[in-house]
């Protein structure tokens, strides 16, 4: 029998509490392959798909982007005009590939002196005040890349080992607007049931309920089934990102209250 996890999932929006760690920053991957060179962006900002320059005191929180091919993972090199630009030379044949990124587990705490990159004890040491909340935050990003019109599933339907992971069950290149795009949500390699999944396309401006950014509208919302699969329905062609957030009570509440995990998948839907 398959083992399922029942988890606490975010309510209105991914950023409601991860904002502690990232001040409502989102984390995603952009990538483009041409003439033997893969260029990618470590997207970290507020306006998908446009990345922002990463603050100097946060660059160490990110692992280098990686290209995933049938031969394995290749670490990309930070290169370009901005600190979010990465590239690697690669001879990619027609096929499906992934580009992934990870935001390392990082403690953030909030108290009278605002948010600090710290657990509860460190916050006390830094501010001489008690933290009212602390979390261990981690984010994961993945992009589906099809080279030369590929639409296969040899690679993209296999997990890559991110702690919280969105795994396509079909190639999004085969999905048309209004059709179902099944995606499996995994936590520690196991399906997550009833997880809340949202998705937007580049350029979507949904506004916010009652003007509250924590209640920002999305153009897709749903929950995974008992098998951990969500059928995302992209309403139009374009560049999309889907995301899921999971909260887990932290084992030692003297250190932090919970672990907050967010995973994003970026993909393209054609007409």
Number of H- or I-type helical stretches: 2
Total domain modules: 1
Secondary-structure-derived class:
mainly beta
Q: Round the Cα radius of gyration to an integer and report it.
A: 18 Å
Please give the alpha-carbon distance between the first and last residues: 39 Å
Label the overall shape. globular
**Sheet with most strands:** 10 strands, mixed
Percentage of helical residues? under 10%
**How many DSSP E strands?**
19
Low-confidence stretches: 1-23
Task: Average the pLDDT over all residues and give the rounded result.
Answer: 90
Helix-strand string: EEHEEEEEEEEHEEEEEEEEE
Strand fraction:
over 45%
Ordered list of secondary-structure elements with their pairings:
Layout: E1 5-6, E2 8-9, H1 15-22, E3 26-34, E4 37-45, E5 66-69, E6 72-75, E7 77-78, E8 85-89, E9 95-111, E10 114-116, H2 120-127, E11 133-147, E12 164-168, E13 181-187, E14 190-193, E15 196-201, E16 220-223, E17 229-232, E18 238-249, E19 258-269
Brief description of this entry?
The chain is mainly beta.
Description:
With 271 residues, this protein is mostly beta strands. The protein has helices at residues 15-22, 120-127, and strands spanning 5-6, 8-9, 26-34, 37-45, 66-69, 72-75, 77-78, 85-89, 95-111, 114-116, 133-147, 164-168, 181-187, 190-193, 196-201, 220-223, 229-232, 238-249, 258-269. The strands form 3 sheets. Strands 2, 5, 6, 9, 10, 11, 15, 16, 18 and 19 form a 10-stranded mixed sheet that branches. Strands 1, 12, 13, 14 and 17 form a 5-stranded mixed sheet that branches. Strands 3-4-8-7 form a 4-stranded antiparallel sheet, with no helix packed on it. It is globular, with a radius of gyration of 18 Å.
